[in-house]
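[agent] plan:
  1. take the single chain provided in the ticket
  2. run structure prediction with default settings
  3. attach structure tokens to the ticket
  4. add a short note for the reviewer (M.T.)
[agent] executing step 1
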Amino acid sequence: MQIEEKITKAAELILQADGLLIAAGAGMGVDSGLPDFRGNEGLWRAYPELGKHRISFVEIANPNAFSDNARLAWGFYGHRLKRYRETQPHEGFRILKKIAKKRVHGAFIFTSNVDGQFQKAGFDDSRIAECHGSIHHLQCTIPCSASIWTSEGLSVEIDEENCRLLSNFPLCPECHGLSRPNILMFNDWGWISNRTEMQMERLNKWYRKTSRLVVIEIGAGVHVPTVRRASESFNVPIIRINPDYPEVPKSTDIGLALGAIDALRSIRNRIELIA
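[agent] step 2 finished; step 3 output follows
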């Protein structure tokens, strides 16, 4: 099937849908200028200090990093928090909102991204499930309780060249020990999942209302395939947008080897043409 035929088929699937599950991986943020940390080389380009010491993504995105070198760990996550706060969602988010608005049950977001870009783009927070948590929420590193609190108002000063926290450590309001982002990390037995579990309950409740669900999956990787597996678990048509891994499991699915903005613009234009 040629690309134009695939885009037409994707537009037809969306027009027939009564609900859209938008499943987004790290590739969704690339068009906004966010790194996807594809392998250690991508990480080390963004954080040369980590590359100098050959610290891998698995090592820095790990709760042990906060006990081994808390200033380095918070240098990494503090810089990411600052970057995500400054980043504006790209045009593709607006296209998705417009497409979803005309579906009977609208859209629900399932994302492994911790950046909060869907909320910033104006999607309803009650219709977003963040399976790996969010950098905009914090928890205790121990953890001393099941408390999760917002990082809104948290100001961190970072030595970007050396990936080090310069300001005071963010502390747990209950035990006054070190806090950390409420993000599911590697080898993470201390992640507090309550917030994500509530989001998943809302997703399942919404899903049961739909009868003609279509998944639009964008930028979901294969090395940590959480989003791809979730997309496929619903056993409904998938529109998979991925410039590197567009392969799809079923004949009813569509794989588009395009970036997010290019694919979504093409689909929007085709919908407007045939609607």
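[agent] step 4 note for reviewer: The mean pLDDT is 95.
[agent] ticket updated
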